[in-house]
Amino acid sequence: MGTFEDRDVARGRFDVADAAPVVLDAQGVVTSWTPDAQRMLAYGPTEAVGRNLADLLTPEDARRVPDLIGRCGAEGGWTGLLTALRRDGRPVRVSVRITSLPGTQGTSHWLALLSDLTDAPGWDMSRDMLEQIVERCPVGMAIVDTELRYVWSNTALAQYGGGPPQRRLGLRLADVQPGLDTESIEAQMRQALATGESVVGYEHVGRVRSAPFRETAHMMSFSRLDDGRGHPLGVYYTVVDVSERHRARQRLALLDRAGERIGRTLDIVRTAQELADVAVPELADLVTVDLQESVLGGAEPPPIPPATQSVRLCRAGHRSVDAVPKAVVGRGEVATYPPGSPPVRCLTTGSSWREERLDPLTEEWATDTGGGRRSIFLELGLHSAMIVPIRARGVTLGVTSFFRRRRHEPFDADDLALAEDLVSRAAVCVDNARRYTRERDAALVLQRSLLPHRLPEQDAVEVTAYYQPADELTGLGGDWYDLIPLSGARVALVVGEVAGHGIDAAAGMGRLRTAVRTLAALDLPPEEVLGHLDDLVARSEHTDGITPEPDEADPGLPTVDDENAASPGVDGTVYARPNRPEEDRAGAGCLYVVYDPVDGRCAMASAGHPAPAVILPDGTATFVDLPPGPPLGVGGPPFESVEVTLAPGSTLTLHTDGLLAGGQPTSAAEAERDRLRLALERPAASLDLRCRSVVDALVPARPHDDVALLMARTRRLGADQVADWELPCDPAVVANARRAAMGQLTEWGLEELAFTTELVVSELVTNAIRYASGGPIRLRLIRDRALACEVLDGGATAPHLRHPRATDEGGRGLLLVSQLTQRWGTRFVPEGKIIWAEQALTDPPG
């Protein structure tokens, strides 16, 4: 079996505790068996010697023996793990080191050292091997004592600065890394010392000596070291540089913030400023956003001039970590870039530009129009720069410039990639805002051309109105108001709104307003006006409600939900809108009110619209109990009208729901009505000031919906302005009617109208007697801004003009009336019908 005097030498070379030596010949046959091997595997010497090593292993490892013996011959030895079988068949995991037998020639015999790993996690390694692991490990390691002074560190820790391990001995972290927040790190060490619990995954961000101009991030873990009695000896900690991962998280977080903050509105300048705000200070210390001047107005940008020409751009966004240098062009000013400058090259090529270190003596590129604010980069404190063109859908809208002043590290390739991501996101938002600005301006022009520039003059009411479009976030709506003079000195007051926003809403508003005026000319009751409007809108929904197919949209635009998508713009492009409150896209709202200044009666009907408020002469405000009715075009029950009598000096207040927070629960709606009531009851010196105070109290600076407010203070015609007579249904009374009318004209001093009035009275009374179904006839003259002659009878048929031939004996009465008067018509009332005619008065009554 043999013994080995150099057993300790072999163990020293292998350094495995309690190793069992075994000698093998060149074929792997056991030639020597030791008591240690017997204790490990339970084979006696006579049972083991002469057996092949493969017979002592599991079948799987036995197949590996020939290869292992061959590798020993080729490489001079082998080290690894095998599974041996004890005499009782129980497997034993062993660590094996095979090396040439000391004192033998060549490779005729091998020494195999076996170590039982049953109760061990792995090899029991020597100090030399442990030191190799520690020294070659790229992770920084160190041990500090209970006073947090270094007692040991590995070589890898020196990569963070502070010198080699020998120089750290006896020093604290603050002595070797003065730029770090050492208090927070030492607090983690004290926590581990005090509790005995390890601190794992502590991330620290700062500037180490090895990279004083760049912010670095480190992942640190701290564990307490105890002696054999459990007393703390110090803290062992590791350091791993995770700066790249930290910067990647920062870039992702910055892009997330950009997605949340850029493009929250459809205002071009605000979007440009949001880009600058997001990039400072995380990416740059100074950011400027310059756009072509035509872009700010919503127009298409002109062709980019060649790089040999200077370029004028408007400064739309500007942000700095500290005071902006006076020499830098300010927001709203024009920046002029000289030919060949980096911004001009970026505009012309559409490519980004980066300069790690600016020449401090080079003059700044941008100057104002006066040319008197040129400075060199040294004076501005700028040392690194990037310029990224703002491009969307193949069009260059401007440039964004990034500079560093405080941060000493220059921009690198990762910074440029991040800047390009930010600018590309903002570019789509800027272009959306540009297109929306163009559509909004066109819609505003259309809407203002359709709204009344000045309300007609009349004496029934004193009137004032206010209109404000919604802010750019929601989009221009289709609210409108109107005042329409009617026969008999009456007026119609109208407010309404069309669902939707943009050009479509403005055009729909124009159609609806025109339809209301047409129906008002027919002198129909309010509920009938709304009934005809309902039919008109329903037909329009079926014939005009055409939605573009999805593939007609611009593929370069972000996808949005249907409820947040804008209507097609003036060029047919559909673009994204920010989220806005849910809106009712079906139907339109309208409130139609007719006021008669003769007796103060006021008839009204509503189609899905708030009821009007009334300010009584004593200053208190109340709301008319008016059924809201269904919106126009959606169908439903018939419209209902309500008639009230208003005292002179009462103020009718008609408004769209943009004046209040529409779409609220009942309790909130009541609260909004209370707010309106309080605003209406505030005293004011004039109707205009009252209207202004209501708007100031209820309408925010940037309303989410259009606001239309119409206020009308009622008047009554004096008793001396109205004369009426009840006449029997007898042809003989025509002469009496003419005489009564002539006497009244004389009393009013309107003798110059006697001839026409006599003819009108004679014709209208004669027609009433001829076609009425019996009952009395009433003649009424009204002196207002016009002289109105009205004849009421119980007939249900309206007269119409005839065009008699030259030989006809009659049929010319109404034709003469239409030729001699300003206007004439028929309106139906519960008692029958009224035929009326008006003559203009040269001087309206004072």
Structure description:
The chain is of the alpha+beta class and 846 residues long. 30% of the residues lie in helices and 26% in strands. The protein is built from 22 helices and 31 strands. Helix 11 packs antiparallel against helix 15, helix 15 (413-450) packs parallel to helix 16 and helix 16 runs antiparallel to helix 17. The longest helix has 38 residues, at 413-450. The chain is elongated and about 160 Å long. The relative contact order is 0.05.
Q: How are strands sequenced across the largest beta sheet?
A: 13-12-11-16-15-14
Q: Write down the overall mean pLDDT.
A: 82
User: Describe the biggest sheet?
Assistant: 6 strands, antiparallel
Alpha carbon gyration radius = 48 Å
Q: Total number of β-strand segments?
A: 31
Determine the oligomeric state from the structure.
Answer: single chain
The number of distinct helices, counting runs of at least 4 residues, comes to 22
* Stretches with pLDDT under 50, minimum 5 residues: 1-16, 545-585, 662-666, 806-810
Strand content bin:
25-35%
**Spatial gap, N to C terminus:** 143 Å
What overall form do the CA principal axes indicate?
A: elongated
Portion of residues within helices: 25-40%
Structural class: alpha+beta
